[in-house]
Amino acid sequence: MIRKLIQEGAPLQVVGVINAYTAVMAEKLGFEALYLSGAGVANASYGLPDLALTTLDNVCEDVRRITSATSLPLLVDADTGWGGPLMVARSVRELGRAGAAGCHLEDQIMEKRCGHRPNKKLIATDEMVVRIHAALDGRVSDDFNIMARTDAVALEGVEMGLERALAYQEAGADMIFAEALSSLEDFGIFTDALDVPVLANITEFGKTPLFTVSELGSVGVGMVLYPLSAFRAMNAAALSVYQAILCEGTQAGVVDAMQTRDELYSFLDYHEAEQRLDDLLGRGEG
User: Fold this and answer.
1) Which stretches in the chain have pLDDT values below 70?
2) In DSSP terms, which residues pair with 35 in a beta bridge?
3) β-bridge partners, 236
4) Which residue numbers are catalytic?
5) Other CB atoms closer than 10 Å to residue 91's CB: what's the count?
6) What is this structure's pTM?
7) By the 8 A CB rule, do 228 and 205 touch?
8) Which of 23, 99, 143, 260 could form a disulfide with 17 if both were Cys (CB 3.0 to 4.6 A apart)?
9) How far is CA 24 from the centre of its chain?
């Protein structure tokens, strides 16, 4: 489904969600594809830094919650696959069974870092090719997308990053995630050389400028990812409310910044569900 959406009108905007409710909001607003970030699972679900501290089961639990609440395809951050080749295959298989439409695997060592942080370390290209082969072996359907992410550009330059991406494409990756690119020209180098869709990670406070969809589309990017934009805004809003309650003894001054009860109910189809319950219990009007 993700491949079809890209073909219908690139670039495809893929918005990050951290739970089922944000997925519901994103779908009702009109987004066509969703993303679950590994950092989002670690930060939001477990209060942990994004340093390979969550497990496959942790991620699958969030995947199941999200895919049960939305019909949109969900791309999932599978980090380094949680182990050797057999574990990578199992990870892909379990993510597919949980309802994910695809996942990306990266070419960092197991003790991975955020792609926009220093001191990343890469595995050899041949090792990453084995990860891709294992992922392809583990997928339960050809519709499940295997995306290969390379973190090489920040460490070794664009030329070496592209060399890796070409090897990953040759290994069978359906898509390429070129992490931490700093210019439109760099994205164009990748899209010109590759035959599979290229994803641009437009994350805030990182190495990649906040390019627009039209700018990225002009250089051939197929997918534009916003992994944690809403999560960061939610955190800032929550902090502001907590501070107001603590300092002022009331939330009255920040109510206007909150989603109303009626807005919440609208996204959740609350009144329709309440009416069905009343009908089942014989409490309907009349």
Assistant:
1) 284-286
2) 16, 75
3) none
4) 35, 50, 77, 79, 104, 106, 114, 149, 179, 201
5) 26
6) 0.95
7) no
8) 23
9) 15
According to the model, what pLDDT value does residue 284 have?
66
**Which residue in the block uniquely carries the two structure tokens 């902090």?**
239
Q: Which two tokens stand for residue 151?
A: 């973190």
The pairs formed by 166-171 with CB atoms below 8 angstroms and a separation of 24 or more are 166/193, 166/194, 167/125, 167/128, 167/129, 168/107, 168/128, 168/129, 168/132, 169/194, 169/195, 169/196, 171/128, 171/129, 171/132, 171/133
- Do the beta carbons of residue 14 and residue 62 sit within 8 Å? no
Residue-wise pLDDT tens digits, 123-139: 999 999 999 999 999 99
- Report the 10 Å Cβ neighbour count for 121: 12
- What pLDDT was estimated at residue 3? 87
Sign of CA dihedral 209, 213, 72, 258: positive
What sections of 83-151 are H helices per DSSP? 85-97, 125-138
Closest CA to 109 of 120, 98, 100, 97: 120
Please tell me whether residue 43 adopts helix, strand or coil conformation: helix
Helix axes 85-97, 125-138, angle to 10 degrees: 40
Separation of alpha carbons 123 and 115, rounded Å: 14
Q: Is 2 exposed, middle or buried (0-12, 13-18, 19+ CB in 10 A)?
A: buried
Per-residue exposure over 49-81, b if at least 16 CB sit within 10 Å of its own CB, e if not? ebebebebebbbebbebbbebbebbbbbbbbbb
Distances (CA, A) of 39 to 114, 123, 281: 8, 21, 43
Amino acid (1-letter code) at residue 9: G
